[in-house]
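Good day; I would like, with your permission, to put a structural problem before you. I would ask you to consider whether the tokens describe a fold that such a sequence might reasonably adopt. The full record is reproduced below for your convenience:
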Amino acid sequence: MPVSFSDLSDEIVEKIFEHFSADGHPMSLRACTLTCHRMSFYARAVKFGSITIHCNDENGLADRFTALLKSNSAMGPLVQNLVLQKRRLPYNDDHPDHQVRPVVSQIPWHLLVNLRSITFTFVQLDGAEVFYDIMDALPSLTDITCTDVVWPNDTAIMQVQPSSGPLASRTFERLERLCIQDGDVSPATFMAGLQQRRDAVPLRSVTLHVDTDRLDDYRAWADLLRMAGATLTRASLYTREAVVGSRAAAPESGRFHEALFDGLKPCSMLRELTLIHRFRDDDSSEATGGTLFEALCDHLDSSPVPHPNLETMRLHMYDRNGAMVSVTPALAARLARALKDGSRYPAFRRLQILVTVQIWMGYWKTWMNDSSEEGFRMAEERWGRAFEAVAAAPHLKLRLEITD
């Protein structure tokens, strides 16, 4: 018996239009919008479901998108994923025509009621209060990504209060994924605005890759991890040593790591943990070991078991001037003992270690990545020996990768 398009279920029609979206031919969707009302609805939902705007392009896409939303409010609920980014140009990025801030302020955010994911890349906002004003208008938001975002008026957020409208109480109540990478975002400032709005955030995934030398910033990130608590299943974090080349810096670095691991303690459902060891590129060639591994071992050995559901750990470490600057063999063995303990970490299966090999360049007084074959070979031997206890465990998988 012949089946017409009107006989197809909504689930099948959605799959058909997902295929149209994936084939890379926008004319297919345009043709569908002219066929019938049902096709037009699904075609528009696919076409406007994910929007990427290069805010400083000369084609005026940002202005056209804003004008469309204002002239036809029915388009707003169709947008589910939005990327706002500033294209890197070969000439002066500070030219007024290339600023992103006017675009951000012109978008009618209150119309994007079904927006689930928003990404800011290489943009500058007028201040953290602008960021929170946008968030207050998005009740369905589950995913926030900020990469190379600059908030020039950081201190202003301290006096900012949540919006008083009907959506204010729903701010961040559905947020599941937060990613902040690079840029000039103060953790303390970010948390000040968030804590004014929520006592808890149901985050499942957190990526915090922001270089900072301030202890208050580490404590702010720890507060964010506590707010997520038992809902958090994945965390990727930068960890910073206070100073390279000075043993006196160890207590200060220890406070950094202590604050971070204290924030992780309530995250009992954590399954994946990534730690990226960061060093200051100072003017010393001394290969001084950090305190990260010691703090990590203390954390894993603590009682009660902080992460009984932990399955995977990824560590980005450093090897400098032929020394395992991030960890000693004794601490590597201690970590292996903790992870091999099936009574404490029964689900743990994978340890991935990425090692960056560096050498000291005295003329420039800085560390440079070493891409020599000999440097790679010797580093692989050093780190392989240090973690041979993990490699020998029958139920664990060790992946060691040497990189420049």
